[in-house]
């Protein structure tokens, strides 16, 4: 059995998020990155949000496929709840030294809901306060017009060019955090993949001995423990 001191020295995995407007190539790159990094000897798992296999995820899937209608506030909280329900598993992987690549995260939740009338980015962020903070956010930049020319655009509820423009504007407001890197996605798949692989490999090496932070809290201690959010809204919604 490992000693307590050995356990403390265990190197954690990195938390890497890919974000971008719809059809920017995130899902394709996430799958390729998992395979490439595993083949290089890294331990890597892939998460995707929304995770449509859970009970909450199935409701979201029906909503996105336009099979049901829900209040926009309720939908936003369902997306957040879908992230929270998978956090124990995600954090366990990271603590055990596995790097987790995530296809969409809380940034998507905030950017998409705030693109709807009557919603502010500040309100939209509250339900996800305290989630693990990514070590690296790779934002794949692609204009809504470029995305609309890619196959499958328009199949789901939010795939409308004007809406995607508002989403892109919200992403721009969120991108000021120091863990973000803007990546031009208007290039061939292999060239983009090589660029992303190099950035993630560097992040894995740089974060092995550091604590995992918490998202959108006033501060986070080095162990990654959440700092209590003082707003009533944030406290209540984090429990959804």
Question: How many strand elements?
Answer: 5
Label the structural class: alpha/beta
Report the radius of gyration as a whole number of Å: 18 Å
Largest sheet: 5 strands, parallel
Strand order of the largest sheet: 2-3-1-4-5
Q: Strand share of the residues?
A: 5-15%
Q: What attributes does this structure have?
A:
single chain; about 240 residues; alpha/beta; Rossmann fold; 10 helices; 5 strands; globular; disordered N terminus; disordered C terminus
Sequence-ordered SSE layout with sheet pairings:
Layout: H1 4-8, E1 15-20, H2 26-39, E2 44-48, H3 55-64, H4 72-95, E3 99-103, H5 106-113, H6 121-126, E4 136-141, H7 144-148, H8 161-174, E5 180-184, H9 189-207, H10 232-237
Parallel strand pairs: 1-3, 1-4, 2-3, 4-5
Helix pairs in contact: 2-9, 3-4, 4-5, 5-8
Please tell me about this protein's structure.
By secondary structure, this protein is of the alpha/beta class. It has one domain: 3-Layer(aba) Sandwich (Rossmann fold). It is built from 10 helices and 5 strands; from the N terminus they run H-E-H-E-H-H-E-H-H-E-H-H-E-H-H. The chain has helices at 4-8, 26-39, 55-64, 72-95, 106-113, 121-126, 144-148, 161-174, 189-207, 232-237, and strands at residues 15-20, 44-48, 99-103, 136-141, 180-184. The protein has a 5-stranded parallel sheet, with helices on both faces.
